[in-house]
Amino acid sequence: MVILPTHRLLxxxxxxxxxxxxxxxxxxxxxxxxxxxxxxxxxAARTLIRAVDEVGQGVRFGIYTRAGGCALLSPNPExxxxxxxxxxxxxxxxxxIHRLLVDPVVEPHALSECVDYVTDEAExxxxxxxxxxxxxxxxxxxxxxxxKRAAAVGLRMPGKSTYFYPKVPAGLVMSDISPGRTxx
Length: 184
Prior knowledge:
This protein has 184 residues and is α+β, with helices and mostly antiparallel strands. The chain has one domain: 2-Layer Sandwich (Conserved hypothetical protein from pyrococcus furiosus pfu- 392566-001, domain 2). The protein is 34% helix and 20% strand. The protein contains six helices and eight strands. The chain has helices spanning 15-28, 41-54, 93-105, 111-114, 121-129, 144-152; strands at 2-4, 7-10, 29-34, 61-65, 69-75, 115-118, 135-138, 163-165. It has a six-stranded antiparallel beta sheet with strand order 3-5-4-7-2-6, sandwiched between helices. Strands 1-8 form a two-stranded antiparallel sheet. A hairpin with a 3-residue loop joins strand 4 (61-65) and strand 5 (69-75). It is globular, with a radius of gyration of 18 Å. It starts with a strand and ends in a 19-residue tail after the last strand. The model has no long low-confidence stretch (mean pLDDT 81).
């Protein structure tokens, strides 16, 4: 079993939301442009994922917009808590991206309308290119060690922090159907 990354798509409905996203990126992150061919969604996505993976340790994200193309985002040290919290929770990519970008831009009541989650990188780029979303955020997968640390201290991770693969069919561990056993 492995954990795959779940990327975020943002639907920014107003120019104010778009400006707010750019302002937050400028305030909390260092942007490293990445040369990618936006005419080739799969190639652009692979280029971004490779850039995120090659950086090494630490929290990094890929961002794709039609206007800005591809870039790698590194959080500025002053934007991250000095104390990463119990189990290193505040250093999880999904926690950082939601705390610094998604939650300040998208109102809580609009999350289901304005944020979508995808595992296919090329699909994320295509949806932005089609204008259905204005921004794709590419994350590294959460590691098994990060999940264990968060669980050990009782912390809840943001939604879609993990995408376990392969999926176990529903019902295999839901009910004990041993002979002679009755289901309450």
